[in-house]
Structure formats: C-alpha cells, structure tokens
User: What shape does this take?
Amino acid sequence: MQDALAGLFHGGSANVSWEEALRGLEADLAYRAPPGLPHSVADLVAHVQFWQAYLLAVFRGEDPAWVVRATDSWPDSAQADWEALKAALFRDQDALAAYAQDEAFMQRVDPGERTRLAPLTSFAGHGLYHLGQVVTVRQLLGAWPPPGGGDTW
Amino acid sequence: MTSSTPSQLAFARLLPRLYRGGQAYVGVEASLSDLTAAQAEVRPDGLPHSVAGLLAHVNWWLVWMLEVIETGQAAPYPAHAADTWPEVGAADWERLKQEFYMLLARVDTHTSRPDLQSPVNHDETLGELLADFALHTAHHFGQIITVRQLIHAWPPASGGDTW
Assistant: This one.
C-alpha cells in the first residue's frame, strides 16, 4: 500500500506520469494559457507545487499559514523559471513519496487521532486532478502527446 | 495493514471521499450539475473529448474495476486505449450520470471491506486498486472542469471550488 501511495505522487498506475506529461514542453508554451482557460501549464504546476510544499511544511512541524483565498494558492508562475519550477515539483514529489514509504512516520498519529495517510492520499489526488488539466492544456496548444507517446496504446 | 490499525480505518473512511471530491478538488456532483445534454456532448476545438465522453470513459474503467473486484479475477487490459472511450452523445447524458452514481454506490460497498490488503488484480491489493481508480476518476474530473470552462458552462449555480 505504501509503495502504491508513494507512486501516486508521480502519477499512479492509472494515469500518465507527471514526468511524461511535462516532457518536451518548452518554456514558451508552458507559460501560455489557451484562449478560454484561466491557467497555463506553468500555473498548474506552480499551484500543485504550492500545496506540495505546504504539506511538506506541515510534516516538518512548521505550521504554515492556511491560505485565506483560493487565489493565494495560485502563485504568479511568470515570476518562476520553468526549469526551476519543474525541478521543485519533482523534488517535492520525491520527498512526499519518501514520507509515504516511511513506516514509522505513517504509523504516527496526531492529537486528533488522524494518521498521515489521509492528507498524503488527498494531496496526491489533488495533484492528479490538475495533471489531467495539464494534458488538456497541452492538447489545446497542439503540444500533445509528449515525445514518447502519452498514455495511449 | 490490518483491519485494526488506524491507517486501515482512515483509508476506508477516505476512499469514498476520494471518489467524490469536494475537499482537495471540486466535488463530482458540482462538476456534473447545471450542464445540459446539449452542452455535455460539445467537444471544444482542439480537444478529443466532450464532458459526456470523459464521463463515459470514467464509467468504463469503474465497470472494469468492479468486475475485477466482484469476480475476484485479474482481468486483461483492453487491447487499445480507444476501446475505453465509448462513442456517446447528448442522448446518453442522463444515462451516463445515473450510471456514474450507481457505480459510486457499488464502489462504496467495497471501500469498507476488512480485506483491503488482499491481492485482487495482478500485483495490486484491493485497497490499491480502489485508490488508483479514485484518482483516475479525479484526473478526468479535472478535465471535465476544463472542458466546461471552454464551452462557457462553468461554474454551476452552486459555485465552483473557489473561495
């Protein structure tokens, strides 16, 4: 179970992986929101990364402030370097996957008797939800499938 | 993981919520509400699927998963990805929604089973299979919102997932 949970941060077995979904997408397209849609791929990645970093801060005991408005969890991706943004996304996915595979960490319960399983699975789900949108945005930009294929057979 | 651990109990409580959204992402009922059959069959330029097409695909895999679980037999994967994308149109919309909610009710009968750790499909356990398809569902519901934004059918009257 913990291996499967860890795998969900990278895409899970039922979806295209994050790495594949971002492969071959250059910065000029990554920052482009298709007409009619509010977000670019870079926006979606920055948003997912915002919540990954939030969860990691919670796990480190840093008590990060909850966002007041939904828009606060959508960083201005234009201010971020595309390669750095992807690197941060993958780095924190690896960190969350490592927590999921840490037996002692997963057995720990907080004062409310809650385990780490629920937030980890819920945040992995949040990432995969937006991963679906990354695919859609790339399709609209004429930048799908990625080199190597996408999730079709 | 055994039936007595906090993790097992938490996971059993979590699974129905993962299928329905409503916390980390927009709930499935809001995602499908206030959309006419005519809107549901619209495929935006540049995209391969309408909302109805996406829901038909989600349903296809939920049926596949439930057959694996309920027969206890590992099932072969379909020969082609296209086999999992049924051709649907406006006339199918109400049926597709009803089918989806009926499938969720069938999923619910399995999420609280005490044997989530039992092997069920190839190298997966029952719990892993249920979680994988909860997130497959979420993946495509994220796309349903995108398609609805493109056809100017979002948010529904109940509001989207913003605050």
Notes: Residues 2-140 of chain A form a domain with the Four Helix Bundle (Hemerythrin (Met), subunit A) fold (CATH 1.20.120.450).
